[in-house]
Every structure is written in C-alpha cells, then in structure tokens.
Amino acid sequence: MATKREVLLLVGEDDVVLWSDASDSPVALPDSRARWEAIWSRRERIVEIAHSHPVGPQAFSREDETTMAALVTALGRPITFSVVAPNGMVRCNKKNDEAYEVTLVESEPWWAALLRHASSMQAPDTSKTPKTPQEE
Ligand SMILES: [Zn+2]
Predict the structure, then answer these.
(1) Distances (CA, A) of 39 to 45, 48, 54, 135
(2) What is the pLDDT of residues 82-133, one digit of tens each?
(3) Does residue 41 sit within a domain?
(4) What is the CA radius of gyration of the chain?
(5) Which of 30, 37, 95, 117 has its CB surrounded by the most CB atoms within 10 Å?
(6) Cα of 126 to ligand 1 centre, how many Å?
(7) Is 61 domain-assigned?
(8) 62 C-alpha vs ligand 1 centroid, how far in Å?
C-alpha cells in the first residue's frame, strides 16, 4: 500500500492546477524554498492554495494558520485556502489577520479527488463520484 503523505496544490482560475508538491509525511508539509519560489513566481495567477490532511483533521492546523497569515501578508491580497481530508473538504478566504470563516465545501472541485489520490487517502464515499471539468 502506498504511503500516505500531505500534498499541496496551487490552483488558478477555472480550477487549473498550476503547481504541486508533496511531503513524505502524512501529518506535515515542511516549508520549502522551492514551494515559496513557485508561489512567488505564480502570485498573479493563484486563486486557491489547497493541501491534504490524509489522516485528518478536516480543519486547518495551527501551523496552517501561521503559514496562511504569512502568505496573505507576503502576497498582499486575499487568498482562498483549503484542506482536503478523507471525508470532506474545508475552505476559508483569508484576507489579513482578521478572523475568518471556515466553511465545509459541499461541491468539491475536481482536484480534490486528485489530491486524495496523490495523498494515498481512502476514498470517502464511492457513491459520490467527483466530476471532471468536462462533465460540468
Ligand atoms: Zn495542514
């Protein structure tokens, strides 16, 4: 069985995946110079930054919040962040240091399934087949 790991996607307009990378751990995604450079060079195009929590929780971690705050400050504009966990996905729109609302995503984008697959997560519910962009 493949090893579970956290995976990160940079997502642009129309749910286009701009870049991705992966850690070798199911519970961490250490900061990397390469990721920061990928984010900076694509900063005009990034709409959403998504990562997986293959063993949960279905929530942002304390470390995620610190990273999100730093990114929003560095990029100087609001960014949507999301966490894809085995049984669902949460999202928030982070503007600055203010409190933000975390919402459960009802209709997951196609790349949520990709993120689960790349993270070696168990599929949440086989009756709910994710749509590809072509099907929408
Ligand atoms: Zn996280």
Answers:
(1) 9, 11, 23, 29
(2) 999 999 999 999 887 677 889 999 999 999 999 999 999 976 555 555 656 6
(3) yes
(4) 14
(5) 117
(6) 24
(7) yes
(8) 8
